[in-house]
Amino acid sequence: MQQELLSGEYDHTLDPKGRVTLPARYRDYFQYGAVLVRLLDDEPCIRVYHPAAWKEFDAKYIEPLDEFGSRTDRWKTRLIYKNQICVEPDRSGRVLVPAQRIKELGLSGKIKIIGNRTHLEIWDPETYDALEAAERGGDG
Q1: Torsion over CA: 66, 83, 23, 9 (sign)
Q2: What ranges make up the beta strands (E) of the chain?
Q3: Distance between CA atoms of 46 and 36, rounded to whole angstroms?
Q4: Which DSSP helix (H) or strand (E) runs through 137?
Q5: Phi, psi of 55, deg, nearest 5
Q6: How far apart are CA 116 and CA 92, in angstroms?
Q7: For the whole model, what pTM was predicted?
Q8: Which CATH architecture has domain 9-138?
Q9: Predicted confidence pLDDT, tens digits, the chain (140 residues)
């Protein structure tokens, strides 16, 4: 499947079972699977990649890391893959978000999904709005 450019902002909800419905316009794109990953502690969201897009991201940014020669790279790789899971959306286009990620990010009820070119991002709306406001304020 050709990689799609993902964009837009969507208000959704996290149901009591920890499932999030992907935006309708992208359900076909993710129908055979999605890779959910939290990359870094300072990025408080969950990225949602199409498996092919994740493979490209991995090849470009993770594979070149020097796991044997760099302790920092070894830990970076370890933490990325510890926080990564492959999921299959159900017939309603919902994906199950790992309970640990929900807890870490304080997700409950309303969530915000942002399209960011190669992936979607699942955010707590208040966290996203605060970070976006801080970024806009920093542009001077």
Answers
A1: negative
A2: 9-14, 19-21, 34-37, 46-49, 84-87, 94-96, 109-116, 119-123
A3: 6
A4: helix 125-138
A5: -60, -40
A6: 23
A7: 0.91
A8: 3-Layer(aba) Sandwich (3.40)
A9: 567 899 999 999 999 999 999 999 999 999 999 999 998 777 899 999 999 999 999 999 989 999 889 999 999 899 889 989 999 999 999 999 999 999 999 999 999 999 999 999 999 999 999 999 998 886 54
